[in-house]
Write a structure and sequence with these properties.
Elements (H helix, E strand, L loop, with lengths): L26 E8 L2 E7 L5 E8 L6 E12 L2 E11 L4 E2 L4 E7 L7 E8 L5 E5 L4 E24 L2 E20 L2 E2 L3 E17 L1
Antiparallel strand pairs: 1-13, 2-3, 2-13, 3-4, 4-5, 5-8, 6-7, 7-10, 8-9, 10-11, 11-12, 11-13
Length: 204
């Protein structure tokens, strides 16, 4: 996959997600449910970022899941970092007009962050666990840019994909902030709510 063929979150079938297995050797990274607020940042800077945060449940029974994939790809392969796991519920606030994420992954022992490389020519890959950093993103809804999605969708981004099954309502949004201390660039972003959504993240 070349960088020009990269597909981001929120692009395919109005998807709000990332990858489904593309090869027999694909490995399931994580699975979780989503039924609540959701937000996506899909930026197009020099090192593209795909990030999705999802709430499942309400009140004290709620969990908040965060997945990101920040990578570059060319005809020979991909390299970057990815992370997945739960974050404190108080680190994310979602709404119809705006959402906010402020989390420090370096102090979150339940969250996993890895650096990786994938060689398309040999099929070889490397994966090394690393320490995460701070992510701060503010989303603001863009009026009259809403979408309803029901059914299944899969979005592929380099070495990863996210498959979602369920329904969601979301609006396009602007997103500003920093990822591990570096400002995020412009892109296609959204905020909204999901209903009885099943999410599977896969790495080739």
């Amino acid at each position: 996959m070349t960088a020009g063929k990269r597909l981001g979150l929120g692009v395919v079938v109005a998807a709000v997600a990332l990858l489904g297995a593309r090869a027999a050797g694909a490995a399931n990274v994580t699975q979780f449910k989503s039924s609540g607020s959701t937000a996506v940042a899909n930026t197009f800077d020099a090192v593209p970022l795909d990030l999705a945060v999802d709430v499942n449940g309400n009140g004290s029974n709620a969990t908040t899941n965060l997945f990101f994939n920040k990578e570059t790809c060319d005809d020979n392969g991909c390299s970057g970092i990815f992370g997945f796991g739960t974050i404190p519920n108080g680190d994310f606030s979602g709404g119809t007009g705006s959402s906010k994420l402020n989390t420090n992954l370096a102090t979150n022992s339940s969250y996993s962050v890895f650096s990786f490389t994938i060689d398309f020519n040999t099929g070889n890959s490397t994966q090394t666990q690393i320490t995460g950093g701070i992510i701060q993103i503010d989303w603001k809804a863009i009026p009259r840019n809403s979408t309803h999605q029901s059914g299944e969708s899969t979005v592929t981004s380099g070495a990863f994909s996210v498959h979602r099954s369920g329904s969601s309502d979301f609006v396009q949004a602007t997103a500003t902030g920093t990822f591990f201390g570096v400002p995020i660039g412009p892109g296609q972003n959204s905020i909204g709510t999901s209903k009885s959504m099943s999410v599977t993240i896969t790495r080739d």
